[in-house]
Amino acid sequence: MKKTTHLFTPIKIGSMEVKNRIAMPPMHSGFCKPDGYVSQKIIDYYGARAKGGCGLIMVEIATPSGARKYVPNTLGIYDDSFIPGFRDMAAEIHKHGAKFALQLVDPGPGGAKALSGVPNVGPSRVPQRNMPDLPLELSVDEIQEIVNDFSEAARRAREAGVDAVHIHAAHNYALLGSFLSTYYNKRTDEYGGSLTGRVKLLADVVKGIKAKAGSDFPVIVRISGDDRIPGGRTIQETQYLAPMIAEAGADALEISGGAVPELFWAVVPPSGTPTALNADCAAIIKQVVDIPVISVGRINAPHIAEFVLETGKADMVSMGRALIADPELPNKAQAGKFEDIAPCIGCNQGCLSNPFAKIPTTCFMNPSVGFEKDMDIVTAENPKKVMVVGAGPAGLEVARVAALRGHEVTLFEKEERIGGQINIASVPPGKQEITQSIKYLAVQAEKAGVKVETGREVTPDLIDEIKPQVVVVASGAEPLIPENIPGIDKDNVCTAWDVLSGKVIFDTQKPLKIVIIGGGSVGCETADYLAEMGENLMLNKKAITIVEMLRLAALDMPLTVRHRLMERLVSKKVKILASTKVNAITDDGVAITRGENEDTIKNVNHIILALGTCAVDDLSSKIKDKVEEVHLIGDASKPRRALEAIAEGRQIGMKI
């Protein structure tokens, strides 16, 4: 039995008492109105997490300084007209016994001029490395205006019933983080130079908030414990910084890590990275301050959170993506229902990639994100006999939901093992956690009453025998093998699925030279997998070559996941030929065109195809006259990510 003895004890942050040690850190959702005002959707979103038992809801980015923003649909709090919306949000959060802190962020040099229409500003005229615009250097008078902006924003927050504010000064980005950075801050006045100078703006902001909103109004400050980049701030320097922030009046410190953009994966760490990766830094900071220290960064399960608290590494834990995946995580953990918690698998597909693509947040494990009041699972008026074909993510989800609604559901899988493509996707390095999704869905489907039959292929004759009223075809996809590449049928050609499933095994005791055609996520992850298979692959710098038609590889991956994967491929000497077309597979190798130049990659042992997938559906057209209701979902309908497949499974399950 797992215990959460420490997790559910109260804690005080300044004058604010929080009922437990679980915080939801600020994460941009995109759910506010386009003009920055609070919407009912964003109230419902945070209300669900408060109802789920989270002690402290730290609401996402709200800009205190007018139009400046760095992502679409950013909350505003730069004049009093925003107060009523936050008052409604506070009422919803408080209704469930949670406390409400609002994050205040001026994007500074990380602002998007094209989005906001106003120039970026910063400590110096040094552009953020991933932004095209050169910021204007702030004058001392302008700095004082910004301090006042933060102070007034905090005053508005308190008037709205908000319990605290959260100040973002981490990762070397946004305004306050850039002032702390020696890379961005080249000033020679009182706001630059030594650490004392670089922290002055942040200290002035904290003091200004206390003066304007009240000395008893709690201020939480997020900083990086260690930037983890050459020339960045180390944990040793942060040991000097943290007491300065506490002395300025901060009531708690949230310790993150990494830097933007150089080490973005460490800011929002994906699967394959250590859990609680900033907890050791938090423990070091705890030794030098007398205020609560919060650890954030891949604390994605109750037992990990409990370990951080039990070992004294932090006083509180921020569980961000875990609470997106399952808003009820705290309540379930407190009740000991650990297997009922939908796991965060660290895919970063819906929570991180979407807002930057101007798409609201969603979640691989939780399609209800953003639809908290619209996707309640209700009992069906007319229970039916339902057959689901295929036990991949889409099939498991539709079966689970349909069974919860009262239908009699049988799930058929022609393989001996459920999971579908997840079984292949989980093979490359750092991807094993994705199997937790299948384990969770399988357990929940069983609890809902779904009968599962593996090793049994569904045919029209079986349909006639069982006589279901509803059939959901979720039979997945198969690798795409284009016919327009000469030589594609040669004996040394296989698919990435063949390799990852173990159908094709290479002899790593012999020198190997491999070409992977297709540099999307599957091709790159297959290269990563192969690069760990034997020393011969590692020693030959040209052992693995990825050929990709687009200008960059793995563009279909979330930014942080791609960043981490590219680091590994570079370290393993995998060669990527982007903007390259494959003309033919010959006896001599692989004929390619790069720009206007034709060439051949010679002496190739194995060619691996990673060119996407095509739908597999040999059933739906044959049974449409036999069954009153037929649905085609997931990759069987159109190959997509598992995120979309699970969402479609949820939607169809609620319709049946």
Q: What features would you describe in this structure?
A:
- The chain has 656 residues and is of the alpha/beta class.
- It folds into 3 domains: 11-356, Aldolase class I (TIM Barrel, Alpha-Beta Barrel); 385-479 and 615-655, Rossmann fold (3-Layer(aba) Sandwich), CATH 3.40.50.720; 493-611, 3-Layer(bba) Sandwich (FAD/NAD(P)-binding domain).
- Helices cover 33% and strands 18% of the residues.
- The strands form 7 sheets. An 8-stranded parallel barrel has the order 3-4-6-9-10-11-12-13, surrounded by 8 helices. The chain has a 5-stranded parallel sheet with strand order 16-15-14-17-28, covered by helices on one side.
- The longest helix has 20 residues, at 140-159.
- The radius of gyration is 27 Å and the shape is globular.
Counting DSSP E segments of at least 2 residues, the number of strands comes to 28
Cα distance, first to last residue?
A: 37 Å
Major sheet strand order: 3-4-6-9-10-11-12-13
Main sheet characteristics: 8 strands, parallel, barrel
The CATH H-level superfamily of the largest domain is Aldolase class I
List the uncertain runs.
none
Gyration radius, rounded: 27 Å
What would CATH call the architecture of the largest domain? Alpha-Beta Barrel
Q: Work out the helix count.
A: 24
CATH class type of the largest domain: Alpha Beta
Total domains, how many?
3
Q: Which geometry do the CA atoms define? A: globular
Give the amount of beta strand, in percent. Answer: 15-25%
Helix content: 25-40%
Q: CATH topology of the largest domain, what is it called?
A: TIM Barrel
Category by helix and strand content: alpha/beta
Average pLDDT metric: 94
